[in-house]
Design brief:
Largest sheet: 4 strands, antiparallel
Number of helices: 19
Number of strands: 11
Radius of gyration: 23 Å
Helix content: 40-55%
Bound molecules: iron/sulfur cluster
Strand order of the largest sheet: 1-2-8-5
Distance between the termini: 66 Å
Structural class: alpha+beta
Amino acid sequence: MRAVASTERALELTRECGFDLAGVAPLHSPRDAEHWRRWIERGRHAGMDWLERDLERVADPRTWAPRGRSLLVVGLGHSRPAVQLPDGASIARYAAGRDYHNVMRRRLRKLRRLLQQEGLIGKPSWSYVSSDSVPLLERSHAAEAGLGFSSKAANLLHPSFGPWFFLGEVIVDVELEPTPAPPAGSCGTCRACLDACPTGAIVAPGEVDARLCLSYHNIESEHAVPRELRAGLGQWAFGCDVCSQVCPWGAKAPDLSERFGLHPSLAEHGVVRWLELADEAEVSSVFAGAALQRPRRAGLARNAAIVLGNREGHEADQVLLRALNFDPEPLVREAAGWALARTRSHSAAVRAALEAAYARESDPAARAELRRSLDGEL
Ligand code: SF4
Ligand code: SF4
């Protein structure tokens, strides 16, 4: 079959599998590989060491997929109104419903099966399907396949979905005809995301420094959130959508809330519940099927404490005191201490609890943080 006809049929099959966007690019070194390399060399990937380890594989996917010839890149919209817990805490929209990895993987596997059934890719089967699961600079490949254009917020924008779509890929062992250039568009003179980012993490157009990015700190990082960024977290309990929310390209994206739904635990509970999670088993049970499990219990409890520290009111005092005194993780104990110091600095009882927690804290980093909270560095 000619490559052009194969591509047309492959794109039809992506629609049959429920994807909104699709395109084809040759499998080669992504055009942003050098930019990526410099980003990592400057340390802007923060503690995401796996990105450093994967650098050479990302720079040329043919090193780990030697039989690959083309990338079939797909996009699935997830635009929806902003998501808040009953207590007003905010959740990144992408994580509010069913875990997109599962949805994408199911559809990508179906797509691969159909491609094989129609003889469009090699037999016996040889291909990779990926939804954040193989070392690919997927936004760069997706831009080349025509799914959007690179933005100043370092994401990909599409005229219909703005920044609100997931990417997935099938690497195939046949040469499909590349799809034409992406839909016209650019950031132009806009700089809304750079101005709106609460922590100045978009340090230059197209360049996010993960060390400053809230989404890194409250999803990926297993460590304490730097003190100077905590106020910027505001009510973001998981992720941060500020740079996407202000983007004019996403303003007219369709409401696709039904596609991923709203996870029941988010409809039922505020973040105080996150501080009460006993162990990983309870996290798996409460957030079954949701992407929210990624920071694990300690990360979720840490996030909850910081959100509560950024809020007026007394309703969380008891749960914060319990976390300060009894949580098994140092990063939760000190975050609870910070929250109490920030909201109750005038309370003699809270001061006494913090002094006692400081005196018995055995973890050096948590102890240093508690000292800073006691000293009013809030
Ligand atoms: S996710 Fe939030 S903190 Fe990170 S760059 Fe965007 S606005 Fe800034
Ligand atoms: S907010 Fe403006 S500058 Fe930022 S990504 Fe959107 S269009 Fe580009």
